[in-house]
């Protein structure tokens, strides 16, 4: 699977305090911000923070900290990994944030495979 890790997503119980902390730490203002999320881009890497209380689509699974790996063809990668016995929590699905699938590594960390970087 050829892919690029260029985003990490964290769930926070206090979005304002998290935003203030990372603004001070990074010496930068958020690149994007809304009521339910804050995002910083540093050297092309995206740090995305979601409010724990933000509503999620039912089929998206539970909100969790996770890495995002961008792949050129999600359906192809999903098929290849499924044949290798890798289990997915969420099969490829179109969400407001893009076309994504979710799985967990052997230690339970969530991984999002994503085809496009939709600007939502």
What does this structure look like?
The chain has 120 residues and is an alpha+beta fold. The chain has one domain: 2,3-Dihydroxybiphenyl 1,2-Dioxygenase, domain 1 (Roll), CATH 3.10.180. 18% of the residues lie in helices and 41% in strands. The protein is built from two helices and eight strands; from the N terminus they run βαββββαβββ. Strands 2-3-4-1-5-8-7-6 form an eight-stranded mixed sheet. Strand 2 and strand 3 form a beta hairpin. The chain starts with a strand and ends in a 6-residue tail after the last strand. The model has no long low-confidence stretch (mean pLDDT 84).
Question: What's a quick, concise take on this entry?
Answer:
This protein is α+β, with helices and mostly antiparallel strands and 120 residues long.
- Can you identify the CATH class? Alpha Beta
Please state the structural category. Answer: alpha+beta
Report mean pLDDT, rounded to a whole number: 84
Work out the radius of gyration: 15 Å
Give the fraction of residues assigned to helices.
Answer: 10-25%
Number of domains: 1
Number of strands: 8
How widely separated are the two ends?
A: 26 Å
**At the fourth CATH level, what is the homologous superfamily?**
2,3-Dihydroxybiphenyl 1,2-Dioxygenase, domain 1
Total number of helices: 2
The main β sheet shows up as:
8 strands, mixed
What share of the residues does DSSP label as strand, in percent? 35-45%
- The CATH topology comes to 2,3-Dihydroxybiphenyl 1,2-Dioxygenase, domain 1
Architecture, according to CATH? Roll
Element-level helix/strand string: EHEEEEHEEE
Query: Residue ranges: pLDDT <50 for 5 or more in a row?
Result: none
Shape: globular
């Amino acid at each position: 699977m050829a892919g690029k890790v260029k985003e990490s997503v964290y769930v926070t119980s206090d979005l304002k305090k998290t935003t203030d902390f990372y603004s001070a730490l990074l010496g930068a203002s958020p690149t994007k911000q809304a009521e339910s999320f804050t995002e910083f881009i540093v050297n092309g890497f995206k740090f995305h923070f979601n409010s724990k209380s933000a509503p999620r689509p039912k089929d998206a699974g539970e909100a969790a900290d996770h890495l995002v790996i961008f792949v050129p063809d999600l359906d192809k990668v999903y098929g290849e990994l499924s044949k290798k016995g890798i289990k997915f929590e969420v099969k490829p699905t179109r969400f407001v944030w893009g076309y994504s699938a979710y799985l967990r590594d052997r230690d339970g960390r969530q991984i999002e495979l994503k085809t496009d970087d939709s600007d939502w």
